[in-house]
Write a structure and sequence with these properties.
- The complex is a heterodimer of chains A (837) and B (664).
- Chain A is mainly beta and 837 residues long.
- Chain A is 13% helix and 41% strand.
- In chain A, strands 6-7-8-9-13 form a 5-stranded mixed beta sheet, with no helix packed on it. Chain A has a 4-stranded antiparallel beta sheet with strand order 1-57-56-55. A 4-stranded antiparallel beta sheet of chain A has the order 2-3-4-5, with no helix packed on it.
- Chain A is globular, with a radius of gyration of 31 Å.
- Chain B is mainly beta and 664 residues long.
- Chain B has a 4-stranded antiparallel beta sheet with strand order 2-3-4-5, with no helix packed on it. In chain B, strands 6-7-8-9 form a 4-stranded antiparallel beta sheet, with no helix packed on it.
- In chain B, β37 and β38 form a beta hairpin.
- Classes of the chains: A mainly beta (837), B mainly beta (664).
- At the A-B interface, β22 of A face β24 and β25 of B.
- Chain B: One of its GO terms (molecular function) is RNA binding.
- Chain B: It comes from Scleropages formosus.
């Protein structure tokens, strides 16, 4: 199991799920959306994530259902591959290697064996030019196929997926780029181009933003920057083309989609209102207002029963066609900037940072799911450009997770500054934070740093302000405030030579407080408020301060703005060592002695992981990301990662997450870890192309009951004579309407079988197989426990495989079947041990 | 070139009348336009949209509907009469009372044999069209409620009538109501107790009826079955006008919000047979009610209460972009309503019902480019109301300011004007011999300061019957009239002197040079000719102009030149003006060719003295004064510029239909 442990920067959870248009499966049960390198499969009814399709190594940019098999999905990625997945089981079926960055993917029902992708134009040096090409998918077997059969369809298209759309019956494709709409007719092989003027006298901004085609009529809807929607008709004429204009949106139309019947056109924009235009009825329209955030994409399920909107705050809303919202899938909310540090909530192990305006979000990294939002500002958010909003600028959580401190700020002009320090107590009964104390103008100036002491008994909060003071806050009972319990009040105000404090940090045991005043570090004793010692390493102001942990707790580390990383020994009160690195971020690991330092170097950021006591860094990686790193945090692992060699030892108990300049949350993953994930995903065996019919359900239940029998037998609990187990099956038989029943010969066999007393013993030759089945079933059982609500078709997977092996599935080629059989024969016994542990 | 003191006159309160109806004659490519005050105007669309003829209105006559029958023009109005016009003499030929109360609409069948009128009392009356007159034939079945709109089927056997709340279809042969009777929905709930007025109907050849009504709907009906096929809600208020294209593939409707909406008959699937009427484009050419619409194949012509005529090209029907298919807006009449007494510094303003005489103000200070201080305000000397019901068709004032004349369709009046201390006016009699034989027609009157009244073009009516007179002017010893320009010799009685060669486009402005006696003509297509009266041939300069051609930008100007003035200081210079500019043309300078910069004033200013000469060309444009109604030179060599800003006209219009505008 121990692989050559290499560390890789990987996208982890918290990626954008609103990056491309989500798709809903034919039966409207699942919603697929791209999230970073992976494709997530959500249930549309429970919002639960069912599968993660992992396999791409770069951003997934396109996602379409396979038109010939609705249980499969194509995805494309910037890594230059198109992959075909079985999303019900989360299995990668095939990989087509194209070899160029793919920006978008389209599938047309009428072009069998071909997908359409958008590639950069090769010939020209201009990297901004893209073309739409038809990619013929070779029918050769094997999991990885080179697909080089490319036919250019349209040149100079926009790489944005929603700017291209396939029309009625796949007869034409319409693509908009800039101010031009191009329509290519496949039958005539002719392109028509229609241009609009950039703007007219009334200041209309005519740039195209999105395109949608009517499913039954020859009508193209285009959205524009100024909020207009144009419906183009007669576009097979060079001159006599015509369009009508509708205008409701006040700024750009972000998304357009026709319902599958073509009766309604859905549009959305920054107004966070889904507009439903009645097709053919002029400007009659309906609205679904208050969706919370700007709409980025709209999609409709193939049967038209579900609408789905992606929002700017990384949210997907699923609503029924009756406009009731049925599910909300919320990802990590990322704005343009992040003001707070990344924090880890000790109770839930969730990542805490700025979310929606004025909120803190608690995001579970493990489940890649938002746990809850905490409204800090508690004011109505008014969406208006240029309005000064109340922003949460600082947040801190104490070591036990029972106190949360937040700072919110609102500055309309340099003189008037509103600062409110709020302290939130964790309430066990409601499992959330409640406001305990609100202190307005805790400092005269901005609060530059804030931290809790690590002391479990008397939690203390220290804030440093731009007014030259640092203040210590303590929880205390007030005699005059009756019945309200303890609240926070100021305990001590400290300053040092009228300098401005920038950073503060408590030692792990809470016995020492280090406060950085400009270029001087002062160390205080919180119990007596006595200035113990000062360190200074001019020039350069202190940028980061932190105490060492565990065995290195005698060290105090600091970084300065003048490219210096210093380590002071608190016992000798002297500089232990220093080195000239431009450290922009210093982050201690709370569970080990390790420190992570991000340093800037020529357009990218390097990472060093070191122990203060050792001169040599444990780990270093150049250029972890381009640009600077905004924030970083060590998050504790659920379980200690085993099998780490020396260079990855620092990743064994916690993971390092960081936010890049482009607000992408990245982490470091080791090779062994990835291998495990891949191995665990491969163990699933295919075959769920059987439609869920009453007959199938009937059979599934029957098999289940049969299996229960087997289970009971194999567990050797009782060796008594079995009662005829077929009675429920017979009842089912009798209650099922005759017209959906299979042929009598088939039923007869089953009927007789059900009456037979099943033999407890296992045939000798099938032992190996039985064992394998056993392990699978165990896993199945586990799955059932966890997903109790899953329908029978899923839970009855294992037996179904067994039962239907004789029937060749229509979708799978011979080679694929062989592959599957091979997989089935593979030894998975190790899994059971893994599951047992 | 010269510097001028400019009198900038903005006190001419000219107010055009709103457009009520229009009809387009495809064969002659002429548009007849009826205004609210009863004026009829005829525009020649072949000839740069020039306003060829104006028939002045009459207080007792209103024009509610206008209809071409071949080359004959009929109108009907709320006075209950059908009127045919004499387009030669620009006057009504005869009127016929329909005896059905006010007439709302008039329609002619495709064969041109019958005229149907819809009356207030609910009757539809058929008139047979005979040469020279019309004759009442019969009534169709009389229904209750007024008939507001009529449309013939192509075959001439059926007629659709838009009434209150319903559309009825009549069989013309029997005069009976056909079985189909289409009830128009009254629209939104608040309007339920108001009657829904079907403002317009159109009967297409495939038995489709299109209707527009006062609840803002455009409805497409199947007349064969008598059912509604589709409804389009176009406006929150009335849809007032409708025009169908000749091939019946599209129609336009005009709303009271000032928008014009186009509908097209398009296939749902490209190349398929199943077609539907789809709302396509929306224009907003107007601010007020669009009362009249015409589709002329390559363009949509619309007019409404905001008094302007808009010709909007349909770019999908246009093959080559040229001057003729850009957006045209016609605000002002293409003739001068102002005349100027050069010596006395007085201006005469002509309104339909009155004349006004103003004396220009005086200023002091003389600094180039400055706005001068007005020492003495302009004063209104006289307001003269016309006699009779006919509107004034033309007027003139003598250069000395002592004589004043105006004419209507029926009479000519001349006044002696004395304004020393007290303004006094006295009518001059004894002119009846001129007006005795026939009704006078539109003419320009010109005074000579020596002789009392030198010319009145009407007196030549008998001589040149076939050519209506558009312009007329005088120079010492000669008289000229157009359309086919003819020069007459004076003194009275006039004899034809010679005929200027006929040019294909209408002359819009003429002038006779005071010293050289050359006749200068500007035509509707903006060609300039100079004709020597003495030598009876075109001058060399005119030949050079024709040989070298005029500049492209000059030929593409939007509005016709309406007046020519000569510079007395420089014999080689003359001035032309249209609505948006005035231009001084120097005959001694080379003509601009298409390569050189046409509007070169600013460039010339930046050049040195020597370079300036090499770049200068004959045309000097000035666009500083917009919306010009008149430009003239006074004897003290100051310019008079009469402007009428469009905002002033707009402010006098009634308030438009209130529309909710976003973010207001």
């Amino acid at each position: 199991m121990v692989a050559s442990a290499e560390v890789r920067v990987a996208r982890c959870g918290g990626s954008r799920i609103n990056f491309i248009e989500p798709i809903i499966t034919l039966d409207s049960r699942f919603l697929l959306c791209a999230s970073g390198d992976a494709v997530h499969v959500y249930s549309t009814s429970t919002e639960e994530r069912v599968h993660v399709l992992q396999g791409h190594v770069d951003l997934v940019t396109g996602l379409r259902l396979n038109s010939s098999n609705h249980l499969q999905v194509y995805s494309c990625s910037l890594d230059g591959t198109v992959k075909l997945w079985d999303f019900t089981d989360g299995i990668l079926i095939k990989t087509y290697i194209v070899g160029h960055k793919i920006f978008s993917l389209y599938v047309s029902k009428f072009h069998e064996g071909t997908v359409f992708i958008i590639l950069p134009m090769e010939s020209s040096a201009n990297t901004e030019a893209f073309q739409l090409v038809a990619l013929h998918l070779p029918k050769t077997t094997g999991p990885e196929v080179e697909a080089r059969d490319i036919l250019s369809v349209l040149r100079d298209v926009s790489p944005i997926p929603k700017a291209t759309s396939f029309g009625r019956g796949g007869e034409f494709v319409a693509s908009a780029s800039g101010l031009q709409l191009s329509v290519y007719f496949f039958r005539k092989q002719k392109t028509y181009r229609f241009s609009l003027k950039a703007n007219d006298k009334k200041g209309a901004r005519n740039r195209f933003t999105c395109v949608a085609s009517h499913p039954n009529d020859d009508c193209i809807a285009t959205g524009h920057e100024d909020g207009k929607i144009r419906l183009w008709r007669n576009f097979s004429q060079k001159k006599e083309y015509t369009y009508s204009t509708e205008h409701w949106h006040h700024s750009a139309v972000n998304a357009l989609h026709f319902t599958p019947e073509g009766t309604e056109l859905l549009s959305g924009g920054v107004e966070s209102v889904l507009v439903l235009w009645r097709y053919g009825a002029g400007s009659k329209k309906d609205f679904v207002p208050r969706l919370g955030s700007a709409i980025e994409h709209i999609s409709v399920s193939p049967d038209g029963s579900l609408y789905c909107t992606s929002h700017k705050d990384n949210k997907i809303v699923v609503m029924k066609s009756s406009r009731d919202i049925s599910a909300i899938i919320q990802g990590l909310v990322k704005g343009e900037t992040i003001r707070t540090d990344l924090l880890i909530d000790p109770r839930t192990k969730a990542l805490v940072c700025n979310g929606k305006p004025g909120h803190l979000q608690f995001f579970s990294l493990r489940h890649d799911k938002q746990l809850y939002n905490l409204d800090i500002v508690q004011q109505e958010y008014i969406h208006e450009a240029g309005l000064h909003q109340c922003e949460v600028t600082k947040a801190a959580i104490d070591a036990q997770g029972s106190w949360l401190a937040t700072v919110e700020e609102r500055q309309e002009n340099p003189e008037e500054l509103d600062i409110i320090l709020k302290l939130w107590a964790y309430d066990e009964s409601t499992q959330s934070f409640h406001l305990n104390t609100s202190i307005s103008m805790a400092h005269e100036g901005q609060i530059s740093a804030m931290c809790f002491s690590g002391d479990a008994e008397a939690t203390m909060l220290v804030t440093t302000g731009r007014d030259g003071h640092f203040k210590a806050w303590l929880l205390a009972d007030h005699p005059d405030a009756q019945g309200e319990g303890a609240s926070w009040s100021c305990d001590y105000v400290g300053s040092y030579h009228r300098r401005e404090p920038t950073r503060c940090c408590f030692s792990a045991d809470g016995s020492l407080l280090a406060v950085g005043f400009g270029e001087v570090v002062t160390v205080w004793s919180p119990s007596t408020w006595e200035l113990l010692v000062t360190f200074s390493q001019p020039p350069g102001d202190i940028r980061d301060l932190c105490f060492g942990r565990l065995s290195c707790s005698k060290y105090l580390l600091g970084t300065t703005t003048k490219n210096l990383l210093c380590c002071w020994n608190l016992l000798t009160c002297s500089l232990e060592w220093s080195s000239t690195v431009d450290v922009i971020l210093l982050q201690p690991d709370p569970l080990s002695e390790n420190m992570a330092a991000f340093s800037r170097a020529s357009g990218s950021t390097d990472l060093f992981v070191f122990k203060p006591s050792e001169p040599r860094p444990l780990f270093s990686q150049k250029a972890v990301c381009s640009g600077t790193v905004r924030r970083a945090v060590f998050a504790p692992r659920e379980e200690v990662l085993e099998g780490c060699d020396e260079s990855t030892q620092w990743l064994s108990c916690s993971r390092l997450y960081f936010l890049t300049e482009h607000m992408e949350l990245m982490t470091f993953s080791t090779k062994s870890e990835e291998d495990q994930i891949i191995a665990s995903s491969k163990q699933l065996v295919i075959d769920d192309s059987v439609a869920v019919t009453p007959f199938y359900l009937l059979l599934g239940k029957h098999r289940k009951s049969q299996r229960e029998t087997q289970d009971s037998v194999s567990s050797h609990t009782a060796a008594r004579i079995q009662l005829p187990q077929g009675s429920p099956a017979i009842r089912e038989l009798l209650h099922t309407p005759a017209h959906v029943l299979p042929s009598a010969s088939f039923l007869c066999n089953m009927f007789v079988n059900s009456l037979l007393i099943s033999k407890s013993g296992v045939r000798e030759d099938g032992r190996c197989r039985e064992e394998e089945m056993g392990s699978e079933e165990e896993e199945e059982a586990e799955e059932q426990e966890s997903e109790g609500e899953m329908e029978a078709s899923v839970s009855a997977q294992g037996p179904a495989v067994q039962g239907f092996q004789t029937e060749p599935t229509p979708q799978l080629s011979k080679a694929q079947e062989r592959e599957l059989r091979k997989l089935q024969k593979a030894d998975f016994s190790w899994l059971s041990s893994l599951l047992d542990s | 070139m010269g510097e001028f003191k400019v009198h900038r006159v903005r006190f001419f309160g000219y107010m055009p009348s709103g457009i009520r109806c229009m009809s387009f004659n495809e064969r002659a490519e002429r548009l007849a336009l009826g205004r609210l005050d009863g004026t009829l105007e005829i525009f020649n669309f072949k000839d740069s949209f020039y306003q060829e003829k104006v028939i002045p209105g009459n207080d007792s006559r209103s024009v509610e509907a206008v209809c071409w029958v071949a080359e004959r023009l009929f109108t009907a109005g709320l006075n209950g009469e059908i009127t045919e016009y004499d387009l030669e003499n620009l006057c009504p030929k005869y009127s016929l009372d329909a005896f059905g109360g006010p007439i709302w609409t008039v329609a002619c069948n495709a064969q041109g044999t019958h005229l149907a009128v819809g009356c207030e009392d609910g009757s539809i009356k058929l008139f047979e069209i005979l040469p020279e007159k019309i004759r009442f034939e019969r009534n169709l079945d009389r229904q209750k409620g007024r008939v507001l709109s009529l449309s013939w089927h192509e075959s001439g056997t059926r007629i659709a009538a838009g009434m209150l709340d319903m559309i009825r279809i009549f069989d013309v042969q029997s005069g009976e109501l056909c079985t189909c009777l289409m009830l128009v929905d009254r629209g939104v709930s608040g309007m339920r107790n108001h009657e829904c007025v079907v403002w317009c109907v159109a009967f297409l050849s495939d038995l489709t009826v299109i209707s527009t009504d006062s609840s803002g709907k455009v409805q497409v009906w199947n007349a064969a079955m008598g059912i509604l096929s589709s409804t389009h809600l176009v406006s929150k208020s009335d849809v007032l006008s409708l025009a169908v294209s000749k091939d019946e593939s599209s129609f336009v409707v005009g709303t009271s919000e000032g928008t014009v909406v186009q509908f097209q008959f398009l296939a749902n699937i490209l190349g398929g047979d199943e077609k539907a009427w789809v709302r396509t484009k929306t224009f907003k050419p107007h601010t007020h009610d669009v009362r009249a619409l015409a589709e002329i194949g390559t363009a949509v012509v619309s007019g409404g209460l905001d008094t302007q005529l808009v010709v909007r090209p349909l770019l999908d029907k246009v093959d080559i972009m040229s001057y003729d298919n850009v957006l045209h807006k016609i605000h002002f009449p293409h003739r001068s309503l102002v005349s100027c007494a050069q010596k006395a510094g007085m201006l005469l303003f002509q309104f339909p019902a009155q004349l006004e005489v103003w004396r220009l103000g005086e200023s002091e200070g003389r600094k180039p480019g400055d706005t001068l201080f007005v020492k003495k305000n302009p004063e209104k000397l006289l307001q003269l109301k016309r006699k009779g019901e006919d509107h004034i068709s033309c007027s003139a004032i003598s250069p000395c300011g002592g004589w004043l004349a105006y004419s209507t369709v029926s009479s000519l009046r001349v006044y002696r004007l004395q304004c020393d201390e007290h303004v006094s006016i006295s009518k001059v009699g004894g002119l009846c011999h001129c007006s005795s034989t026939r009704a006078p027609r539109t003419a320009l009157l010109h005074f000579d300061s020596l002789s009392l009244l030198s010319a009145w073009c009407c007196s030549f009516a008998n001589v040149f019957k076939s050519h209506p007179v558009c312009l007329c002017l005088l120079f010492p010893g000669a008289q000229c009239i157009s359309h086919h320009i003819l020069l007459l010799s004076s003194p009275f009685p006039f004899q034809p002197h010679c005929t200027v060669p006929i040019y294909g486009s209408c002359p819009t402005a003429m002038g006779i040079h005071p010293t050289s006696n050359n006749l200068l003509m500007v035509h509707a297509d903006r060609q300039i000719f100079e004709y020597s009266i003495v030598e009876k041939q075109y001058t060399d300069w005119s030949r050079r102009v024709q040989r070298e051609g005029l500049h492209k930008l000059w030929l593409e100007r939007d509005t016709p030149v309406t007046h020519v003035t000569f510079n007395p200081r420089n014999a080689a210079q003359f001035m032309l003006h249209d609505t948006y500019m005035f231009c001084i043309i120097d005959q001694s300078l080379p003509l601009p060719d298409n390569k050189c910069q046409f509007y070169n004033q600013i460039t010339l200013k930046s050049l040195s003295e020597q370079e300036r000469l090499s770049h200068a060309h004959a045309f000097k444009m000035c666009t500083k004064y917009q919306h010009l109604l008149f430009l003239g030179l006074l004897d003290d060599e100051s310019l008079v510029v009469v402007q009428r800003p469009l905002t002033d006209i707009a402010s006098q219009l009634p308030a438009p239909v209130r529309l909710k505008k976003f973010a207001t």
